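Batch job 17 of 40 flagged for manual review because the log was empty.
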Amino acid sequence: MINKIKKINNLLIKHFGIPSRAGKLPDPVDMLIATILSQNTNDNNSYKAYNNLKKRYPNWEMLLTAKLPSIEKEIKVAGLGKQKSRAIKNFIQGLFRVNNNLNLNHIKNMKNLDAINELTKFKGVGVKTASCVLLFALDRNICPVDTHVHRTLNRIGLVNTNTPDKTFFELNRNFPGNIAHSFHTNLIRLGREICKPQKPNCSVCPLEKICLYENKNYSRKENSTPKSFMLLDNV
């Protein structure tokens, strides 16, 4: 699997280029909240929701006493307001109970799997959210798996799994060093622009020759020029 991951990464970089990274790593708590807000919405809306929340509550300690409807009001642009406000509130309260503060310094020296297990103890924090914290805020060589990454890797034939979490653990069991950021980011671009859920545009896919997907679609050719979009590490 390691060699195939490297080959996929090289082909994606050849097609999309090396993804840019923010100069300064975001705070892990900021990153976790931003990732919760990014679920089931587009990047622009999640970014607006994060900024609205931060403007209303510039100090996360203020969320300890904030009412759920107030949090929901600030993040409504990202959708799923009740669910996301509850997850954010649960995380903030749970973290304060555990550490008596609102930082994640205690996970910085943990191994990846231990850190994942620690973060997912908080109700509303899943494996994908936890792994985004590790990759984008702690610069760990770990590849988060969202629906795009899960779909594309199963189509390619790198894994044969039925949930994103299963894909995550299979993929990261023995992941090659120093490529997680480019691999993850470019796979998302592939899933958004080319390897779409319905009618993937296989005629312009950089992985077409190594992809094992049986229902390839060559019926149309589209301009595959990458669209600009905001990444989590810009939050």
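Reviewer: the log was empty due to a logging misconfiguration, but the result itself is present. The domain at 2-20+143-234 is CATH 1.10.1670.10 (Endonuclease Iii, domain 2). Unflagging and moving on to job 18.
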